[in-house]
Amino acid sequence: MKLYFAAGAKQVCVNHIDVPLLEDERQVHRIDRLRIEPNCMALFAPHQMSSCRMGFDPHISVTDAYGKIHGMENLYIADASLFPTSLGSNPQLTIMALATRNAEFLLSNN
Ligand SMILES: Cc1cc2nc3c(=O)[nH]c(=O)nc-3n(C[C@H](O)[C@H](O)[C@H](O)COP(=O)(O)OP(=O)(O)OC[C@H]3O[C@@H](n4cnc5c(N)ncnc54)[C@H](O)[C@@H]3O)c2cc1C
Questions:
Q1: pTM: predicted TM-score of the whole model, two decimal places
Q2: Rg over CA atoms, the chain
């Protein structure tokens, strides 16, 4: 928790029913006294994506539609970061399909 605040976080989500959110590093001590019982925590796995969006316009995207970095030769991305936005659902099959498509394009054009 301290690391998040040291890195500049304005809030840290604890997801415990007694302390859902920390607003300040001085509140971190509150997690030491939390109950550890069934149904106290909301657990989930975040799916990070869209940090190097593909697109046609270099001003609002990092790569072209096949993962090639705008303005660079021989540098490609083939992972979840290519999505133009978050899918809002489990992304793994789409990532595999996208990576396969881009790899096939790369092989057939080099
Ligand atoms: C707990 C959990 C459960 C999930 N469950 C599902 C699910 O049920 N269904 C679903 O669709 N998705 C699920 N996901 C999401 C899915 O696993 C990811 O979205 C997907 O694997 C991301 O693919 P990626 O290729 O972008 O990244 P990753 O799969 O993270 O691949 C990145 C690769 O790069 C390597 N790497 C990192 N740094 C370097 C470096 N410097 N040099 C060389 N290699 C490096 C890593 O070792 C890794 O192999 C889950 C994720 C988590 C964490």
A1: 0.76
A2: 20
